[in-house]
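Section 4.2 – Deliverable D4.2 (structural model, holo form)

The reporting period included a commitment to supply a predicted holo structure for the target in complex with nicotinamide-adenine-dinucleotide. Inputs used:
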Amino acid sequence: MKTVHTTLLVIGGGPGGYVAAIRAGQLGVPTMLVEGDRLGGTCLNIGCIPSKALIHVAAEFEKASHFAGGSPIGIRASAPTIDLAQAHRWKQGVVGKLTGGVGMLLKKNGVQVVKGFARIVDGKSVDVEPRDGEPMRITCDHLLLATGSEAVALPNLPFGGSVISSTEALDLDPKPAHLVVVGAGYIGLELGIAWRKLGVDVHVVEATERILPAYDEELTRPVMATLKKLGVVLHLACTAEGLSANGDGLRVRSRNADEYVLPADKVLVAVGRRPRTAGFNLESLQLDMAGRAVKVDEQCRTSMRNVWAIGDITGEPMLAHRAMAQGEVVAEVIAGHRHRFAPAAIPAVCFTDPEVVTVGQTAAEAGPDIVTAMFPFAANGRALSVEGSEGFVRVVARKDNHLILGWQAVGQGVSELGAAFCYSIEMGARLEDVGGIIHAHPTLGEAVQECALRALGRAVHI
Ligand code: FAD
Ligand code: NAD
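Output (structure tokens):
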């Protein structure tokens, strides 16, 4: 077996690993990256990007269907059809452009990519059986773990056959007549809404009493309204018990112990993801863990010297932008820079209809000494003029000095407001700062400004 040496060895080419490798390459650190599947990881291949592309297809199809029914803005069209195979090809084209771009950027920055599954030997060496080449041992000065996460399976509904994870749910063709989604979190609602818009009968089974239980109820109310309008049937406070005897239905138990069967060609289990820590001899390093995740400090160092970890393997929040930011930190620290991962806030967006975005603290999290205000999109000219008047922007600030602590919003296109929310918190803005900035008219951003003004008791347009 040949042995090669590098300064930084990254295991995993997802957003955490590829960003760390590119940044390390930019800084002149000799870097190798081992990827067992496809560059881009979960996010680019089977997560963020294809799901958002599918959500776009579904939204366009629904819009066209809406016009066929006679729309308030006067557009009439005949009932649309969808060529699902073409839609999936387009989606894969988007994925291909981005993953191809990642490969080029790694190459441009001098990162050597090894395509193969890595198995840890010790904290400084890893064995790989490359897909095209001889088995090799890579030794390194720094080992970076960026192996991501995997879908959690339910013991009574193991993946296989009609029981699918988000990966298969992105590529359904033909579309099922009846899709039952288990879990009304990010994946369940993003994909459940998309398939409903594409004409599938969708039921959602959720263990808690609410959809998106990670968000407060006021924020999820407009999403509830859309689910009702679209005809997504919710089974809240219910548990999935297993497939029915003949396999074409899901047995569901409600809180009062009634059991019933929902017809299901496919059952999408979306009850969370867990760090990918097994199957590559990681346990041999005996790293300190935080539950199922690898425990890291503010510089993403694990408990073993020069072994680092970033992204989903380090636990919640399992979001691509967090993984990327951690990747940059590790590359810079290894290159000798002073840096740490200590964001004031990490934005979270749920790409439901309408979208939900949260940055920083909610009123409940911030405690008693706060001011909070909400500004509805029903009073925003832009929202009204693009038929998106549901939802609102909400701000949370300290009562004494008006320092902004958090923003929440729900509405059409609010994911893009996340940047403004983050800037204000990272830059230590006060309500007066945001309220005093001229925002272009007519834009959704004016609702952000008005929300800050309302918290100061002087909103103009409400
Ligand atoms: P990953 O992207 O999972 O990459 C890890 C890589 O490591 C994989 O390519 C894997 O093949 C490789 N690997 C693992 N073990 C080995 C080994 N032993 N040897 C070699 N290679 C190995 N996040 C958002 O921020 N926004 C979204 O809109 C969003 N949507 C999502 C939608 C879905 C359906 C899913 C499933 C997830 C979504 N996420 C979203 C979460 C996001 O995908 C993850 O947070 C992100 O991919 C984590 O990046 P990572 O680099 O830690 O791991
Ligand atoms: P999630 O944690 O968002 O939601 C899981 C849901 O399943 C929760 O509502 C939970 O109460 C419910 N649940 C748990 N066990 C259950 C059971 N036995 N029966 C019924 N319901 C049950 O998890 P997810 O939707 O699988 O997504 C996983 C992760 O992927 C997210 O936490 C997020 O980090 C990431 N993700 C992010 C985005 C985004 O940023 N837009 C999109 C998709 C996924």
